[in-house]
Design goal:
globular; five-stranded mixed sheet; 299 residues; 13 strands; 8 helices; alpha/beta; 28% helix
Length: 299
Amino acid sequence: MTDKRIIRFGSRRSALALAQTKLVMEAVALADPELEVALVAMDTSGDRNMKPFSEASDKFGIKGLFTQELEEALLSGAIDVAVHSLKDMPMNANPALPLVAYSKREDPRDALVLPEGEREVRGGVIGCSSARRRVQLAALYPGIRIEPVRGNVNTRLRKLGEGEFSALVLAAAGLKRLGLEGCIARYFNTDEMIPAPGQGILACQGRAGEDYYYLDAVRDREAAACAAAERAFSAELGGGCTAPVGAFASLAGEEIEIIGLYADESGKDIRRGSARGAVKESMIIATKLAQELSRGEEL
């Protein structure tokens, strides 16, 4: 009798990251009983030094701070697969460490979270660290202060409960994966608040040249097509590192539609647009839309 092959899955230590990694591990284990799955959790530079920041001030790749240690573990062979929230992945991927699988998309929308018993925002301060969300919230709630909030999901919820903020805006996917859907007071549809590229999709990162057949257990064709389009849109605009960028793609048969958001670094010049075409040309369509919006051609 041979020993089972062990597949080591790397994850950040946050509750959300662990929950997401376990979803992938469980799917792989269920699909192939001949494999043994193991969890390797680690702290990242971003987790250790999470200072208040906004995407708009991210000139040095803040997203990479949450992936660096996992990528080093992949390169050293300490883990076989790293599981990430795709929206947290830098656009300029290391070719030695490709994204090898995308999960079926969870709810891509942003969600409004209010203190217990409240049904609407009543002034005060909305906590939100994403520049993309902030520029869109300013239009939805004119006159209400919007300030950065630091910490993981549970830390942010605690701050809300303690009265530091009157509302939070978080990704619906993360709340649902943590079993916190009951905290959501309102969902923002994807037209009124365009999501981050890849929001709701889990990305599995591996080593170039290796066979990741076992990740067929989580691979989703629609998510992969949408991810490619959304990331192409963001990459064309510089990766969303110095200006608010949003992108959301959806499929209807063999046709894809993408809606995009681009704003200047001040967040005052906001441009939205959409485009559609054949799925096989999704990246070309997304890139062209980004170029048009960057030139000020709102569509």
